[in-house]
Predict the 3D structure of the following.
Amino acid sequence: MNYDCLIIGGGLAALTCGIKCAGSGLRTGIISGGMSALHFSSGSIDLYGYEDDRTIVYQPFEKIEKIISQNPLHPYARCGMAIIQEAMRFFKNEASCGGLELYHNEESNHFHVSTLGTIKPTYFSQRSVFNEDIKEAFRQRPKIALLSFAGFRDFFPKLAAANLQKSSLFRHLEIITGEVILPMYSKTARNPHEFRSIDIARIFDSERYITNIAEQIKKASQGAVFAGMPAFIGITNYNKIYRRLRELTGIFVYEIPTLPPSILGMRIDDALKRRFAELGGEFIAGDRIVGGEIIDGSLDHVHTENHGTTRLRARSYVLATGSFFSGGLTSGFNILRESVFNLKLFCQQERNTWYSPRFLSTGGHPFLAFGVETDDNLHPFTQDGKTVENLFCAGAVLGHYRPIVEGCGGGVAVSTGYAAAKKIIDACRTSSQ
Amino acid sequence: MKSIETKAIVIGGGATGCGTLRDLTLRGIEAALVEQNDISSGTTGRNHGLLHSGARYAVKDLESARECIAENKILKKIARHCIEDTGGLFVTLPDDDPEYHNRLIEHCKYAGIECEELKLEEAFRIEPHLNPYILSALRVPDGTIDPFRLCSANILDSMERGGKVFTHTRVDAIIAEGGTAKGVRCIDEVSSEPFEIRGEIIINASGVWGQRVLSTAGINLTMLPSKGSMVIIDYRINNVVVNRCRVPSDGDIIVPGDTVSIIGTTSRTIDYSDIEKLTVDDDEIDVLISDGEKLIPNVAKARVLRAYCGVRPLVAVSGNVDGREISRGIVLIDHESRDGIKGLITIAGGKLMTYRLMAQWTTDLAVKKLGLSKKCSTFHTPLPGSEQKVKKPQIRQFTGMPNSIIGSTLYRHGNRVSSILSRQNRNFSLVCECEMVTVGEVEYALKKLNVKNIIDLRRRTRIGMGPCQGELCSYRAAGLFNELGAASPIEASQLLIDFLEERWKGIKPILWGDALREMEFTYWIYQGLFGLGDIAERSEDE
Amino acid sequence: MIKLENISFDYCIKCTVCTIYCPVARATHLFPGPKQSGPDTERLRIKNPELVDESLKYCSNCKRCEIACPSNVKIADLIQDAKWRYLKKKFRFRDYFMSHTDLVGSIATKVSALINFFMSLSIVRFFMEMFLRIPMRRVFPKYNSRTFQSWFRGIKKSQSSFSKKAVYFHGCYVNYNNSSLGKDMVRVLNAMGIGIEVPDEKCCGVPLIANGYLKKARKNAAFNISSLQTILSDDTTIISTSSSCSFALKYEYAHLLGMDNTKIFNRVEYITKYLYNRFQEGMAPKMKPVNLRAAYHAPCHLERMGGVIYTIDLLKKIPGLDLVILHSECCGIAGTYGFKKEYYDISQKIGQELFRSIERAEAEIVITDCETCKMQIEMNTPYEVIHPVSLLAKALDQ
């Protein structure tokens, strides 16, 4: 198979990059070994959330400006401010084309509420989490209800309420908790293994039970303006169901991402994949790159598990295989390596320096910042220090940033994915001229 | 200050303490047990869970070997659900002294341990994944024993007979008035409330911690702590206990325990002041894995789940300080004759295997000192859960319910399974998906088994002990603590933090490969998605 | 006891993604999903085989869990293996009849008219449902009056004139039920200047594996491996027009049956990949426009093998084909799964999503690579379903 651009990995960075490339008329393939980390993400895109001392960043672009000047190795610095801003506009637009509207608080961060009732700064959120109406309603010091589905084991509203009440933003608000009963409960109750968030979301992908649930939500909220619930409003038919719920209840049904799978995250995955396919991109699922050949500083072809001896070729390649979790990086007893091409890593070799003494240490863990070293063009280096000219790296496989501690995982994935795509498109244009 | 009256007080909730409490209550003596942490949280819960046949001691310490095989036979009867009668092998590797094999056979004969020479093909039939280059193999009646279950069953039985149990309660001092021990002053570690328990006889069964406890009564007893480390493999890589046929040394045994396998053990002398801050060293892990691999090569490919260590409770009886050399014999001290303090007994030394025997001797002495004459019956009275032999997970009551759930609950609680899982759907809802812990089991543990936090819950149920180490279940468990009235929402959040931090301790030393992936994922969820660190920080500020 | 061939359960980090994408778990709550049935309980089964859950039997082995898994766990293999290793087996005449396609097919083709007539009688189907638990509503494939093999014997001589050759593993379906696909295949390759050789073959074993006849499956596998190994020279490709047959020859033999198929592994190719490579070499036949709007459904097993891109590429090269690529969904039939009463409703429910998207595609015809997908879609939609090779045969400009 021959592509203009072949992207290894199928997560946020890969899809952003793929959409940009496919949308520019390049024959683009994404090869993804298993589903991506989007399935466990909050469904909001964080741009930059925290200072090193854990204080909250309100103006992410201002902060990024500082990062760019202070830390030239940070992936944001590799992208540059203009590209980051362009990437965000592009992403919002493409997600919308894929059927998912994203909202942001102009240039500032807004907050979303977690399953444990903590609040987290973020840049883009879905309609049920943030929009102008929600912002306005919140100014009025509304009463808040946190509801769950009876029997659902992945969301305990009382825990969320107690912690939420402790945050300065919610301290003076009335927060109540309650329960609604799934209309399907009588049928599903036979199953001893109970449902996960996805089972509930599927029930509400159709409009069948919507009036029933709307009534229950209204009743259980006892006059609250917001009803925070584990994300349940479907995956594909989300916009319509959300609107209907709003009409029927008059309440803001606020969605909270739960234990895996995260419905809000899956919606992003779904929208981006849909958009990628619409633009003619080819998504190859469930296959893994087992190797490739770098000839004269340029990646010639790759082999996959399924395609055996048949080579996949492209003019440009993107490595967006993610961190350890997604398999982009591999660790052994005392070894760290990049999984596909054994590229040069930013890391520490001694194992006892990989982690912090406490699991929830404020600074996170050193291993979370490990990743591929690149030059300014996102080209990685082979072990002998040479760059690979037609290979770009994007997303969590990159080193020099701490996605969770800085609250910038989503932003870096989108920005670097977009930046790589821009470079590839430029390269294709010059070579075809 | 609150004061509680009882007849006998046991300090320490390890196997010996729990066994002594049971023996006392079985003989109809009113008794209370005080434990600074959770039952079986010290040395008892930190070994490899081998149900010794005695063969490991046969060559060096015939007396211990004889005790082991006798207790082995008793435990198989009274603690069925805490034990798996897997059988064990002693295999000789090419670099081992082949002479040890013959000596072992001979000494097992002296000790009365059945020891059968196996043809190699028979050994490979029993344990197909053994190192193919072994030279010889012996079969001995080793098995596995779950110390958490064992202690929990002893405590449950005592409580059902009126025994009182105070966990997370530290003994501040032994109250000694006029040369007689009258009770103990305690602090409830959860509420920080001080109180005292008064009784006629005090039994110190606090193992290595006994040195501190006794010092409060002005008694000097030197403990020589020796650290032993082990690593846990994600799944059962062996069917039977595999021992290396050589003089006992580091990394020479792999024990299959419930769903995992444990490679043991190292031995390092440590300072007494270090007993509260033990860590597993990298070189210990190195040794355990590379030597474990020699027994079963598959160790190299499997995920290492955790590493942990315990302190051997060795009492100084000679000048020798290497842990393995010191006699593990049972030490029973009547402080009246040793130190002139009446009403105080110390039981120390020994092993998990001989806990019942130790409890029997201790209780015999206590009974004598109390002027009573009640006979021990622990050697034939089964522990709760072990009353009958339940053969298959297919119990009629549960027809149509998943065997994986019924069977796992049966493993952990024996006959009590029927009071844990009623046919209610909610009871079958899984909290821990790796070890099949249900809402029903959590509820049972919270109500009946002295559970104060999720870490205790883990010891009763195996929650969070599977491959994901709490990734999915710890939030659910915290939620249930609140739902079942065992913690306020804020307390439940703290329990969640404590649990994940406790899991992290054992994961840190083996953080590579899939364990590292798992932890990145767990961190992603609990910090990235839930912001649990913010709660942790807040609670530190307060 | 551990089976070292598949210790991939150890890689599972409990992300639950497999369960999201399991079509069976989605359709019925009787199946707790691949995570629990595979890696979770495999640890328990190693501890004690008695802890095996009956619910394993609901797995249709569509392999979508393996496609979704980010940790490379061979989930479906684990479940299949556990099913036959630990669950008690009951002999059912129906399962024997459905899995021994060779035996049944060779008899049925001899009396095809009679069989086809009988199978169309509702009274027969009523008793079949009653006694054999084969659902009445399920439409059965018709039997040919003449096997593909016997037809091929008639034209065998004509194939010797080609210097380039390919070995065609036709499988039971082409042999007994749909020989026209085999004929199309011969026409297409002949038009490209490639001659066909047909090996001695037995059923690839897919239905045998699905029904627990592992011994027989191994026997067939051994036969096929040795037969395919010896036919023609080492570099001749062995092609198959059935995605499931090629999947079995390539993967299931090694993974599930523990057979050594290394000698044929690299030679076996699903037809569209073979055609793709030949087209790349400039061997594409002359084609005329077909002027059709068609919807393409990718079968699960082809997707698992990574073969879908080749089929799509091939279809895109057929002139005048207005192609709609359907969102990848399981059709639900999963071989013999949907032919059993106990799974019939589940099978139908799984397929709904796909049937709806076929309706929405407003095509004239549906294309798919798999014979049982074809049966399921033809039964549930008004459309004719055609194999890519048959479509290519239609496009041949001769």
